[in-house]
Amino acid sequence: xxxxxxxxxxxxxxxxxxxxxxxxxxxxxxxxxxxxxxxxxxxxxxxxxxxxxxxxxxxxxxxxxxxxxxxxxxxxxxxxxxxxxxxxxxxxxxxxxxxxxxxxxxxxxxxxxxxxxxxxxxxxxxxxxxxxxxxxxxxxxxxxxxxxxxxxxxxxxxxxxxxxxxxxxxxxxxxxxxxxxxxxxxxxxxxxxxxxxxxxxxxxxxxxxxxxxxxxxxxxxxxxxxxxxxxxxxxxxxxxxxxxxxxxxxxxxxxxxxxxxxxxxxxxxxxxxxxxxxxxxxxxxxxxxxxxxxxxxxxxxxxxxxxxxxxxxxxxxxxxxxxxxxxxxxx
Length: 331
Description:
The protein has 331 residues and is mainly beta. 11% of the residues lie in helices and 36% in strands. A hairpin with a 2-residue loop joins strand 10 (156-162) and strand 11. The chain is globular.
């Protein structure tokens, strides 16, 4: 009887009050709530059309696919709920694509013809990008461009946009900044080369971090992350300063844009830990190998599984922060 009373009360709530409640939900919960009844669906649709009201920080999820689910189905593992959601995605089939990266809830994918798409797996929106013609160069395209503009230098591992500048991280460890706002591209050297695999991230710590990820390759050619070292980029001195752990923060590494988040804002995550996935280009040659996915504790370098015995086949698993935002490709 109590349950029936609660349901009836919720159904009688004004639309704006229901929207206020929905605005506090994680996106998987929000989508599930929208299927309860037509009135809740209308609240979800109204919230979707007024995204300024939906400000709930989203916990990153792991997106992956497996042969058993079919060519167009992807799995979304919610770290907040510790459960898997199935997403049916539009063509080209997700299992024929290479996941190049993700940022702000959007994936960049390459199909079998190397054609690029910007794709939101939550909303299903897909935008064709200019054809790629370069390799190991950073190129950019503004909205409405029909081709990519290459930046000087090559062998970059990752890039990130922060405070109006595009920061590029080379395979050899160099950190470079590009100002794309003017008619002439300006470039700056932030730090010289250093050893090992490098990634870059910004986030709630307020600093630009340089990340050194050390891995071991087993006899079965499986890559296993063993240690992560952190360096803060000192912009004024143009040098890297080693950082002793993340303390109350969490780091996400992989083919996605790296993120550093506050564990206080995301209580489902484990502080001073690195959540990692594969980030090797050659992973496409070993599509059926077990993936390098886990949680690394920076305090003692111990590693634990995120999902037990997860064999993801292809494409490579990637972190994504669910986002309901639509994009106007013509604006």
